Structures are given as C-alpha cells and as structure tokens.
Amino acid sequence: MASLKVEGLRARRGSFTVFVERLEVNSIVAVVGRNGSGKTTLLDAVAGFIKAEGRVEVCGEDVSALPPERRRLAYVQSVPVDPPMRVDKFLMYVARRHGTVGEVHNVAEVLGIKDLLKRSEGLSTGQKQLVNLAAALLARPCAFLMDEPTSHLDWVNKKAFDEVLKRLGVPILFVTHDPVEALYVADKLCVMEEGRLRCLADKPPLDVSRLVGEVQNLLRLNR
Amino acid sequence: MFCNKIRFLRLYFCVFVDALLLLAVGASGLLLMLLVFLPIYFVTWSMPPGFLEAFLYTALFGAAAAALSLLPGLAAALASRRGGVVGVLSQVLYVPAVVPPTSVGVLLLASFNLPRALCINGVGAFCALRDLPAYVVNQPLGVLIAMTVMALPVSYAVFEGALREERAELYFRSLGFSGFSLLLMILLSMRRAALTAFVFAWVRSFGELGVLLVFASYPVTASIYIYNAWLTYGVGAAVGASLATALVSIGVAYLARWRLSK
C-alpha cells in the first residue's frame, strides 16, 4: 500500500492544465521542473487546495473528495509560516490535536530545534522552516508535500534541512527547481514539463555526495 | 561629486536616489508645514469643554472597532484568495472605503430604520424591532457599528496584501486545522499584519467624520468635537484639538512601526 498514490489527476489553473497519469510516493520523490511547469499546481491539487479530477489515495484511503485538513498530507512551503505562538506551545498545541504529545521532545531533538522551543520571535527563515516541519511531523501525516522548502535557505541550512529529511525516512513529494538538490535528497526523480509529469525509472548515477563535499570544502576555504 | 567619479550607469542611479530623497523630503515637509507648523499660529490654548472625553471615547470605540474588524477582515481576505463567488463577494468589504463616508452614514441610517418603516399599524414581524434605531442611532452602539464598518476595509486590505506573500492557510489546513481554530492560527501567525491592521483601523477611527455625523454623532467623538468646535468657535478653537489628534496618531503609527521592525 502506497503512502500516497495519484491516478489520472487533472487540475487547471487558469488556462494551464497539469496531468499526472500515475504517481506513487513511498519514499522521497523529487519533482524537478522550470518555473511555470506546474509543480506547485500539482502539489495544490494533491493537497486538495484546488479542484482536480482523478484519484488521490493516502494510506489506502481515497481522499479525492476530502478537504485539505482531512487528507493527512502535511504541506511545507517555500516561505515558512511564522509559528502562531511560542514554539513549544505551538508544537504542544498541534501534538494535542493529533495525540502525539509524547513525541514533541523527540521531534525537537531529531530536528535540532530544542534551543528554539522557548522562542516566539526572531527566528531565521531556516529555523522557521524546521519548526514548520516539526509541527507537520507531529500532525502524523501519511505523506508530506514540500514545495521548494529550501529555496529561501543558504547552502549550509539547505544541506542541514535535506539531511533531516533523509534521516526521517518519511514519504515526501518534494518539489524543487534545483536538480542537484533533487538528486541529493530523493530516492526517485520525476520531471515536470508543461504540466506533464514524467518519472525516471532509476536515479542518475551522479556522485552527489562528492559534489556536496566539494562545495562544503569551498565554503570552508572562503571563511 | 561622488557620483561624477563613477561609471555612467551608477551616476544615473545616484541621481535617481537623490531625486527620490528630494521628493520624499518635499512631500513630508509640505504636509508638516500645512498640517502642523503653519496652523500652530492659530492655536488658542483654551479649548472648548469635552475634548478629553471625546478623545477617550474615540480611542476606546476605535480600539474595539479595530479589534472587531480583524477576524472578518482576515476571513474575507482568505476567501478572496480562494476566488469563486465568496471571493468576489468579499470585495464588498472595500465599499465603505470607496463611497463617501456620508453615504455610508445615510445607508446605515436607512438600514436601521427599516423595521420601523415596515411596521405598519403596529402589526407584523418587523414591529418587534421598531425601537431598534433608539438603541443604535446616536448611541454608543451606533458609534461602534459605524467605526467597525469603516475599519473593515482597512483590515481587509492589510490582510489581503500580507497573504500575497505567504500561504499560511494551506499549511495550517494541512495540519488539520479548520473553521475558527484555522482562522485563529492564521491570525496569530500573521501577528505583524494583524497589529498593522489594528493600528491603522484605530487611527482611522480618529479621522472618521461623515458616517458619525449622519449616523452616530453621540457620544461625541474626536472628529465630531473638532467639527463642532470649528462651527461654534471658529478655526482657532478647533486647531488645538486637531493638532493633538494628529500628534497622537503619528505617535502611535511610529510606535507600531518601531515595534514591527524589531
């Protein structure tokens, strides 16, 4: 049973149409594509935020007719949302709704945000993004939708965020326009072009770890 | 000078910045002269009685109206982002900002007098509400209603602008929030926009005359007080109150800006 399964999805935004014949997300699936190729429209349609034809199945349940709040899909976006209250209170509030109070400290530990728990203001974009991810994890979704979650982060924070995602091992439909990041973070790669999704059978054998290491060395040299 | 020593393109940029500063200083200076410095000449320090009460009433009712406008303003802004019929309908919140305030006063007056007009010979469903104007028109409740109606376009416009930058609704809905809790989460998350909307709506309440004059001229609020002072005692008597109101509004706006920039 796939965590997220999409079949015959057709969504329109203005005169633009996105069509996905079939997509299964059980690990990290990256969707790369140029601006305006339909990546965000795809996520919005899967999340139920815009009307779409076709079938969206989450943890074996057909959620096509359900509103976004009942689809069990957590949506993390490129511009992180400000926590509505102090970080620990926000996480506890979300956890209480989903019966995951016991997991709050573990999630904070795994994401490395324990130092942020007592803060409500002055969080950086990267820190906000990690808090957004923590709350999303506590909502215990079947799968994550991520729309360029690292596009506002610098290289170091981007790498840290991607490392966390890889470590978590949760199913994610990860949209990015950075092919290097897609290769680094994903287990499966898809390309969105003019509203059509094409998934590659195998991830290209590029030594991304080496590339990442070289960039890190370069950053250290420049310090 | 400095601009002449660098390349042509940068010279152009430099000239542009200077023109920008010149225009900004010119506009601010002109308003300061017209609205603060020149009128000081006419100030008579013995103001007609009732200024403090009028000022406090305005501050109190304005704050209540600004607070009341936040959630509906946010909800309408979210609905207009979603589009559809409700989205189009939400644009109605701009109406009080685009029609003359006196028209808003007249329309409110007509609406609240409707039950009395429809109560024929003391029989009918509307007769139960025929005394409604007595509780609203020229009453504290009327001031609150008038100020809230005028505050709605302010909070709607502020939230609509803020929502162009982020899609908080989608995030919180994906966490399972809906209904009132969703609205509250978004409001708290967008607290900077909420504070901006509150401050501007509050400041707006000091500037409101037309709707209050027609619909709720009692209890006397700052704008009605200034209008009456001018009618009864002339310009000098009204200038002091006007300047005090302007200074408080500017002060609050700067305080809010300072707080938001932290």
TrEMBL record, chain A:
Residues 4-219 form the ABC transporter domain. Its EC number is 7.3.2.6. InterPro entries: AAA+_ATPase, ABC_SmlMolc_Importer, ABC_transporter-like_ATP-bd, P-loop_NTPase. It catalyses: tungstate(in) + ATP + H2O = tungstate(out) + ADP + phosphate + H(+). It is an enzyme of class 7 (translocase). Keywords: ATP-binding, Nucleotide-binding, Sugar transport, Transport. PROSITE patterns: ABC_TRANSPORTER_2. The complex is composed of two ATP-binding proteins (WtpC), two transmembrane proteins (WtpB) and a solute-binding protein (WtpA). This is Molybdate/tungstate import ATP-binding protein WtpC. It comes from Pyrobaculum oguniense (strain DSM 13380 / JCM 10595 / TE7).
TrEMBL record, chain B:
It is a multi-pass membrane protein. It is found in: Cell membrane. Keywords: Cell membrane, Membrane, Molybdenum, Transmembrane, Transmembrane helix, Transport. Gene3D superfamilies: MetI-like. The chain crosses the membrane at residues 12-42, 54-76, 141-159, 171-188, 209-227, 233-256. It comes from the Archaea. The keyword rRNA processing does not apply. InterPro entries: MetI-like_sf. The keyword Transferase does not apply. One of its GO terms (cellular component) is plasma membrane. Belongs to the binding-protein-dependent transport system permease family. This is ABC-type sulfate transport system, permease component. It comes from Pyrobaculum oguniense (strain DSM 13380 / JCM 10595 / TE7).
